[in-house]
Amino acid sequence: MSNREIVKADVCIIGTGLAGLAATLFAVNRGLSCVAVGQVGEINFATGFLDLLGVHPAGKKENAWTDPWEGIDILVRDIPKHPYARMPKADIRAAFEEILNFLEDGGLLYVRRMNQNSAALTSLGTRKPTYCVPRTMWNGVVALEKKTACVLIDFRGLKGFSARQIAAALQPDWPDLRTARVSFPDTDHLNEVFTEHMAGALILPQNRRKLAQTLKPHIKGAQIVGLPATLGLYRTEEVVADLEEMIGVPLFEIPTIPPSISGLRLKEVFERGLRAKGVHYLSQNRVLEVQHQTDNYFETRIGRTTAEQIVRSRGIILASGRFIGGGLHADRQRIRETVFDLPVYQPGDRSAWHRRNFLDTRGHLVNQAGVEIDDSFRPLNSSRQPAFKMLFAAGSLLAHNDWKRLKCGAGVAISSAFGAVKSFIRIDR
Ligand SMILES: Cc1cc2nc3c(=O)[nH]c(=O)nc-3n(C[C@H](O)[C@H](O)[C@H](O)COP(=O)(O)OP(=O)(O)OC[C@H]3O[C@@H](n4cnc5c(N)ncnc54)[C@H](O)[C@@H]3O)c2cc1C
Question: Which among 40, 43, 100, 287 is the best mutation to test ligand 1's pocket, defined by most ligand atoms within 8 Å of the CB?
Answer without folding.
Answer: 43
